[in-house]
Amino acid sequence: MSNVIGSVSFICLIVFISRVTCYEVPSAIIEVVHPKGFRASIPGEKGLTLFAFHGRINEEFEQTDEGQFSADVLGPDPIGFWTYTNREVHLKIGDVIHYWIYVVKDGVEYERVSLSYEVKGDLKKLTPTSFKLNLYWLNVLFLVNIDLSHDCLPYS
Thinking of the domain 23-118, which architecture would CATH place it in? Predict the structure, then answer.
């Protein structure tokens, strides 16, 4: 009888550990905002309680330090994304945002390090990108058929 209880306990422990360790922190979706700033977002998931973004411009991290800018995000935006917004940094084509992310999900801490995003293209065409991003996620999440083949930005 004790072998059965031990086996069941072991199986329960394995199932619990596999559920806890299955989460993989996604790379951030980076949106450059003109004339200055950017947003970094990750999709919301049940159990998320913290999203922390740490970044540097054109300088890689040696460890997981604070960086040139960082912030903790304690909740999702109205459409379910956890978003860090920086309205201070001036970005130009060729700049690289080096960053790492810290997330708490279901009480467990996760990190994803050594991430980067290079600013490319005409910055004026990136203003504002959130409208297009939101339509994209409506397509993905709700299977809404929205044509994204043309430039549908609400502002020029």
Answer: Sandwich (2.60)
